[in-house]
Amino acid sequence: MAKKAKKKAPAKKKAAPKKTKAKAKPAAKAKTKRKPNAAFMKAMTIGEALQPVVGSKPMPRTEVTKKLWDYIKKNKLQDAKERRNINADENLKKVFGGKKTVSMFEMTKLVSKHLS
Q: Which domain holds residue 49?
């Protein structure tokens, strides 16, 4: 009788050689306070339609947005069910190009047209 060939067990994999530690990282730079981007801090001229809402003196874009949100919250113009939407009153309709309701993302685009 012929002997059956024994099945060989698969060769065992060798363990990967241990990695040596990488060079120590240089000490982290001392944290400095973030300075604001000059483009955001540039005073913008407020358009006529936007003046009743945020005021007439020039101010940075960031301040315009803050004052706009203060106006929206003070007059309860944020939609109760769909919080992303702003319901325009007479002053905001001029800013929003006559639209009655605007999403908060669309609002910034429409407001930027009144800044120069």
A: 38-112
As for how many domains the chain has, the answer is 1
How far is 26 from 53, CA to CA, in rounded Å?
51
Compute the Cα dihedral for 58, 64, 68, 71 and give only its sign. negative
Per-position pLDDT tens, the chain of length 116? 566 666 666 677 777 777 666 665 566 566 777 776 777 789 999 999 999 999 999 999 999 999 999 999 999 999 999 999 999 999 999 999 999 999 999 998 999 999 99
pTM here is 0.66
Tokens of residue 51, six digits: 């003046």
Q: Can you give the CATH number for the domain in which 103 is found?
A: 1.10.245.10
Please name which of 60, 71, 74, 63 lies closest in space to residue 95, comparing C-alpha atoms: 71
Can you list the pairs that 104-111 forms with residues at least 24 positions away whose Cβ atoms lie under 8 Å?
107/68, 108/65, 111/50, 111/64, 111/65, 111/68
